[in-house]
From TrEMBL:
It comes from Sphingomonas daechungensis. Keywords: Membrane, Plasmid, Transmembrane, Transmembrane helix. This is LPXTG cell wall anchor domain-containing protein. The chain crosses the membrane at residues 12-31.
Length: 65
């Protein structure tokens, strides 16, 4: 246990920088990911189970028509 305490006391700045980098990276990924704005009318309905006009215009049933 004494070795761990010595290691942490000698490398506290690097440990703190690594923890802050991990937290900052998490925030960057969270806010960089796509978020639908309130004015957008796009809806992902790829897993919707309905047929005909029930689903609407955004349902994609085939890739590369």
């Amino acid at each position: 246990m004494d070795q761990v305490t010595k290691f942490v006391s000698e490398h506290w700045a690097a440990i703190l920088a690594a923890v802050l980098a991990i937290i900052g990276g998490g925030f960057a990924l969270r806010f960089r990911s796509h978020r639908q704005s309130g004015r957008s009318n796009y809806v992902d309905q790829t897993k919707a189970k309905a047929g005909g006009d029930i689903v609407g215009r955004d349902k994609v049933t085939r890739i590369n028509d």
